[in-house]
Amino acid sequence: MKYILILLISIVFTNDIKAQFYHDFYNSDTTKMFPPSSDSKDISFDNYMKKLNHAINTKNTKELLPLLDSNIKCSFGGDWGWSGFIRMWHPDIAKSGVWTLLRKMIDIGGQYDSGQQEWVYPYVFNLSQKYDAFFSFVIIGKNRNLRVSPDLNSKIIAKLSYDIVTYDTIGGRKDPDTNHLNPWGEWEWYNVTTLDGKYSGYVNW
After folding, report:
1. Angle between helices 98-108 and 43-58 (to 10 degrees)
2. Omega of the bond prior to 150 within 30 degrees of 0, cis?
3. How many CB atoms lie within 10 A of CB 115?
């Protein structure tokens, strides 16, 4: 079995369960994307993940590289292979963000892709199978505040839990004086609209 890690950076089953997920998600107009309710039951994959988790937790580049595909694709540009991965992420540097990112991706949870052949982290990567990957986000977590303006003291419009939302790139970035960068180098605030169009406002990263 080939294991593929897909690094989806933005910033933001068992056979029966898996089949139910795809029936619900791909054949419906769902507005939410909940975390998978079960992990892979493949023993060889579980052993692979133990090695990967150890490499991530100890920030060990020598352990990590053999676990990556030699043709790993790190971006939609030309960053391919181990050399591209090292050039892009500099894993040997103590402050490299790749370790925190990998940890967060796996903690979010993974699942099979729509072809049920590849296990992907984070599971929200599968959103791109049905929605625009560049302008559709998933609110990770329960009861996240949607506010009327990009301010922690502004009025709360709604509480969002694993909602799929569309992202307004202009509205989310129109005021750089109040929309600072988070530790990932991305915007602190995002202007989003729920799929049903009922709510539109700002979420903090």
Report:
1. 140
2. no
3. 7
Per-residue pLDDT tens for 121-154?
888 877 766 777 677 888 888 999 999 988 899 9
Strands (E) across 109-162 are located at: 111-112, 119-120, 136-138, 144-147, 156-160
Residues 6+ apart with CB under 8 A from 83: none
Residue from 32, 1, 194, 201 nearest 116 by CA:
1
The alpha-carbon radius of gyration of the chain (Å, integer) is 18
- What CA–CA distance (Å, rounded) separates 11 from 196? 23
Asked whether the beta carbons of 195 and 165 are under 8 A apart, the reply is yes
CA distances from 6 to 69, 118, 176 (A): 11, 10, 30
Average pLDDT for residues 85-111, to the nearest whole number? 88
Q: How does the average pLDDT of the chain come out, rounded?
A: 76
Is the pLDDT at 166 greater than 50? The verdict is: yes
Place of tokens 């993940």: 49
Q: pTM for this structure?
A: 0.69
Structural domains of the chain in order of their starting residue, each with its CATH number: 15-129 (no CATH), 136-204 (2.30.30.40)
